[in-house]
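Q: Entry one of two.
A:
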Amino acid sequence: PAAVAGVSSAGPSAQSPAGYGTEPPMRVEIARVGELQARMARLEAALSEVSAREEATRREEAKARASEEARLEAALTEVRAQEEATRREAAEARVREESLTQQLAALEVRLGVVEAHAELYQQ
């Protein structure tokens, strides 16, 4: 067999192309692929962890918002009930005022009658 440059009949030459050190180029690339795959796996794991934390944070924030909305809804319901109670009290106060005004008018009429009788008796 004819000799191929860089390869003897005993296998690859001990000399490697420039830039690869003592490892043959194929082994270096396979090792690099393994390193890159390991790095990719670490990055994917880190991304997964970050995504899980973000999702947990979103769930906590949603739960906090729901709780705050429930608290505000309860407060609004209470304010509306107080507003309605105040309106009822105001309406009742107007009715009492009208009643007292009518009673006062009736008393003034009676007083006028009594005063008129008193004048007649004094004459």
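Q: Entry two of two.
A:
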Amino acid sequence: TNGGDIESQQHRRSASGGHHPKHHPIPTGITITDGPHGLRKTLGEDLLEDRIPATCFPTASALASSWDVNLLHKVGVTLAQECVAADVGVLLGPGMNIKRHPCCGRNFEYFSE
């Protein structure tokens, strides 16, 4: 491709997180959406009003602090069920990371040491 056609533009936008936090249907038909504490998927342009209902779980750092492997498994199963129900192929979260600095504004989103 020449890099300027629509499909190439969609690939670049999807790979770069182009229009965060909206979900991105990419050309392969896989829907990717964000949501470190649960599924977040919008149905239209209004990011605050036009969303599907979803469970909001405690933050990853709070869940990890419980040391309850069974609880984390149940959260993972529930996230998977919500993704299947909403036709989402990839959920960008929860995540795992080493927290290198306490001032990082995203630390609450990660399971960590």
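A: Comment on entry two: The first strand starts at residue 24 and ends at 25. The chain is about 30% helix and 10% strand.
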